[in-house]
Amino acid sequence: MKTRERIVEVAIRLFNAEGINAVGVREIARTLGISPGNLSYHFPRKEDLLVEMLTRVTAGNDRHFQKFREGRPSCESFLQVMEQVFRNQYRYRGIFLAQEEMRRIFREFYDYRAVEKRRKDFLREFFSDLVVAGELKAEAGELAFLGAFTGFLGRFWILEAFFTQDDRSEDEAVRHYLGMLAWQLHLLATEAGKKGLEKYLLYLQA
């Protein structure tokens, strides 16, 4: 594994275990067995390392969203994509749990408005595709609410998961919040959509 990759892997492991504010670049370098100067060659500041992680999260999510677009739209396939998105967030949970630090990073180093717009556009297209595919039956206002709910859940589920029950495993946490999303979709699903959702709910309970 290349040094840059090792730095990211060790940093996220430390951030997840101890929190962003408790981990400095010297500790990351010491854990890796390299000099702080070697680390700063790849990431001059801690902020650069955090931006790299956010970029990877976004790129991973985009890959999962693209898979949904390549197949036949269904409520079940949408939840499968969201499961991968949630697991991607869980892998980098240390950066999502540090709200104050990440707010500063978003403002200074990351074009969060562009990311948020892309997320909203994705969700609007996804749910419109599900209506066209006969999986959902919903008016424009209901689709707007569903998009807002999904966006909110996608941003904040991991905070609630760790603030309320931080002893839950990844599977327990991800499945719990996916279940919430599945039941929300169920309210607007057609009979065809409900079949896929009920199949997915059985998978979540397994």
3D structure, described in words:
- The protein is mainly alpha-helical and 206 residues long.
- It has 2 domains: 1-44, Arc Repressor Mutant, subunit A (Orthogonal Bundle), CATH 1.10.10.60; 47-205, Tetracycline Repressor, domain 2.
- It is built from 11 helices and no strands.
- The chain starts with a helix and ends with a helix.
The count of domains is 2
> What is the molecular shape?
elongated
**CATH architecture type of the largest domain:** Orthogonal Bundle
How far the N terminus sits from the C terminus, by CA atoms, comes to 36 Å
Q: Spell out the CATH superfamily of the largest domain.
A: Tetracycline Repressor, domain 2
Can you identify the CATH class of the largest domain?
Answer: Mainly Alpha
- CATH-assigned fold name of the largest domain: Tetracycline Repressor, domain 2
Q: How many whole angstroms does the radius of gyration measure?
A: 19 Å
Low-confidence stretches: none
